[in-house]
């Protein structure tokens, strides 16, 4: 089989004609006669056929196919945001009385979704820690799904997906993974044994901070449930947006390589700075997830989180962050540009620990020259009081 980079240049393209998939717009699709209309409505129960705008069109199909190939699945369904993909998947697979076990490092809005939405439908949830060797004790007789984000948000804790898949399969429990971090390139949950892979294409697939999109990819057994929920909840995506994501994924491998290379360089450098207590980035050999990352991932990305020396105050650090020149302050990541945001320790595994961590800052290392990014980070560190001074004051 061709390499991923080669396939990225060819997936989701028309078999002939336009080199690039054109944007197709439409709501109503016309038929030659009633028999054809009736036949298509029957056919669409089991096959992907053009019938109505909400069910997709050629542009959307092309992206579905590309995502399926990238994730190594049977078929994919697209949703207007990553969160819509996650919410739809949970609603598709869970019913009243079911329990879902969720990994602790999950994208924060998923916790809100569990607490303020799933409970309305009589679905219960609880959390398990990525570093809990005895995580299985959290499974209940009514557990229907394990929802795993690996590496998790903010601290990038990794899960032993192959091991978890074995346990889940034996007990008839679905294993669903959020693959936004790996975006089908650096990590492949379906190949590691998961039943469903969801992702925010808003991040690296789109890659240019200008489009929102979510995807769900499954094996043959679970696709119908996902398609059904997308129909019932009227979830569909615009052809322009599908086009932007298709355009983004042509350069996915090139971009992610650069993000990963620059992030590892920055992470290594930051780890040696006196103001920094720890650096979280699974490709860093000192990271506690490094062994699992080596085993299960085939690459990395631009995300890293730093913990400042606890002697530095929040006010001192935030004042310095406000002065940064190249790192933008804003949500999301996976675009071409560098970003910075504070991390609330209450949203991480630190919440369960007695000792509060130092100030946590998440960085997304963009495609800028890493030397310039280091200069910007260096000016952040320079703006902080030196630690020897701090100790003298203390
Ligand atoms: C951003 C993100 C999402 C949600 O994606 P949106 O497109 O912003 O809704 C889901 N999971 C993870 C891990 C994310 O980082």
Highlighted features:
394 residues; alpha/beta; Aspartate Aminotransferase, domain 2; Aspartate Aminotransferase, domain 1; 2 domains; 7-stranded mixed sheet; 5-stranded mixed sheet; globular; binds pyridoxal-5'-phosphate
Topology (elements, then pairings):
Blueprint: H1 4-8, H2 34-43, H3 58-71, E1 75-79, H4 82-93, E2 99-103, H5 108-116, E3 124-128, E4 143-149, H6 161-171, E5 174-178, E6 196-200, E7 214-218, H7 223-232, H8 239-249, H9 252-271, E8 276-280, H10 290-296, E9 303-308, H11 314-322, E10 328-329, E11 339-343, E12 360-364, H12 370-383, H13 387-393
Parallel strand pairs: 2-3, 2-4, 4-5, 5-6, 10-11
Antiparallel strand pairs: 1-7, 6-7, 8-9, 9-12, 11-12
Helix pairs in contact: 3-8, 4-7, 11-12
The structure holds pyridoxal-5'-phosphate.
What can you tell me about this protein's structure?
This protein has helices at 4-8, 34-43, 58-71, 82-93, 108-116, 161-171, 223-232, 239-249, 252-271, 290-296, 314-322, 370-383, 387-393; strands at 75-79, 99-103, 124-128, 143-149, 174-178, 196-200, 214-218, 276-280, 303-308, 328-329, 339-343, 360-364. It is an alpha/beta fold and 394 residues long. The strands form two sheets. Strands 1-7-6-5-4-2-3 form a seven-stranded mixed sheet, sandwiched between helices. α3 packs parallel to α8 (239-249), α4 (82-93) packs across α7 (223-232) and α11 (314-322) packs across α12. The model has no long low-confidence stretch (mean pLDDT 96). The structure holds pyridoxal-5'-phosphate. Pyridoxal-5'-phosphate (PLP) binds next to α4.
């Amino acid at each position: 089989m061709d390499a991923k980079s080669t396939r990225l240049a060819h997936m989701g393209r028309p078999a002939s004609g336009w080199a690039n998939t054109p944007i197709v717009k439409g709501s109503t699709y016309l038929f030659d006669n009633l028999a054809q209309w009736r036949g298509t409505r029957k056919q669409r129960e089991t096959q992907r056929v053009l019938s109505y705008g909400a069910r997709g069109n050629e542009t959307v199909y092309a992206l579905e196919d590309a995502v399926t190939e990238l994730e190594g699945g049977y078929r994919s369904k697209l949703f207007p945001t990553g969160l819509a993909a996650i919410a739809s998947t949970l609603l598709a697979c869970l019913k009243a009385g079911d329990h879902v076990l969720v990994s602790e490092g999950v994208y924060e809005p998923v916790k809100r979704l569990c607490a303020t939405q799933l409970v309305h439908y009589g679905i219960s949830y609880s959390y398990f820690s990525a570093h809990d060797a005895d995580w299985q004790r959290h499974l209940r007789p009514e557990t229907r799904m394990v929802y795993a984000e690996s590496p998790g948000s903010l601290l990038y804790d990794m899960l032993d997906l192959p091991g978890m898949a074995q346990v889940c399969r034996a007990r008839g429990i679905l294993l669903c993974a959020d693959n936004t971090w790996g975006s089908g390139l650096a990590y492949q949950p379906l190949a590691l044994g998961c039943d469903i892979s969801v992702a925010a294409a808003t991040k690296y697939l789109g890659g240019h901070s200008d489009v929102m999109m979510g995807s769900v990819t499954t094996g043959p057994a679970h696709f119908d449930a996902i398609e059904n929920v997308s129909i019932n909840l009227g979830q569909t995506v615009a052809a322009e947006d599908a086009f932007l994501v298709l355009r983004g994924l042509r350069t996915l491998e090139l971009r992610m390589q650069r993000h990963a290379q620059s992030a590892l360089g920055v992470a290594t450098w930051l780890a040696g700075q006196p103001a920094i207590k720890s650096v979280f980035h699974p490709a860093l050999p000192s990271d506690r997830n490094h062994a699992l990352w080596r085993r299960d991932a085939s690459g990395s990305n631009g995300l890293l989180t730093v913990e400042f020396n606890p002697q530095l105050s929040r006010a001192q650090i935030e004042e310095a962050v406000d002065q940064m020149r190249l790192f933008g302050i804003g949500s999301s990541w996976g675009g071409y540009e560098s970003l910075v945001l504070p991390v609330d320790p209450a949203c991480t595994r630190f919440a369960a620990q007695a000792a509060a961590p130092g100030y946590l800052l998440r960085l997304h290392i963009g495609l800028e020259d890493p030397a310039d990014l280091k200069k910007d980070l260096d000016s952040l560190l320079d703006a902080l009081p030196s630690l020897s001074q701090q100790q003298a004051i203390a």
